[in-house]
Amino acid sequence: EVQLVEFGGGLVQAGGSLRLSCAGSGFTLDDYAIGWFRQAPGKEREEVSCVSTSAGSSFHAASVKGRFTISSDKAKNTVYLQMNSLKPEDTAVYYCAAAQGRRCDVMDYWGKGTLVTVSS
User: I need a labelling partner for 16 at 20 to 30 A (CA). Which of 5, 88, 89, 100 fits?
Assistant: First the structure.
């Protein structure tokens, strides 16, 4: 059974940093692309970042490029999202999700999410 569990959310002041972790079980990172998505209150869910260890590629949305970095640890089957220079508009529930293959086009599995709150 594929499971994804997010860790690392919390409250941080604007300009601060957080690192989110997505621990996976029941699959290996070589077979799945892992994406981070977020949903703020009253807004649609948006893709933040995606990584494919098999393709050796990553993607970051324009809104977070230069501030967020996605990385993966195959030994731990874990994907991280390092978030720096956080802004109040980054406040959202952050979800990690897995898509079989090399692209974060259609996600097959989702975690339950972790809340990130950035205060001004």
Answer: 5
Single-letter residue type at 111: G
* pLDDT, mean of residues 89-103: 96
Q: What is the CA radius of gyration of the chain?
A: 13
The per-residue pLDDT for range 46-85, each reduced to its tens digit, is 999 999 999 899 999 999 999 999 999 999 999 999 999 9
What strands lie across the sheet with 18-25, from one edge to the other?
Answer: 3-7, 18-25, 78-83, 68-73
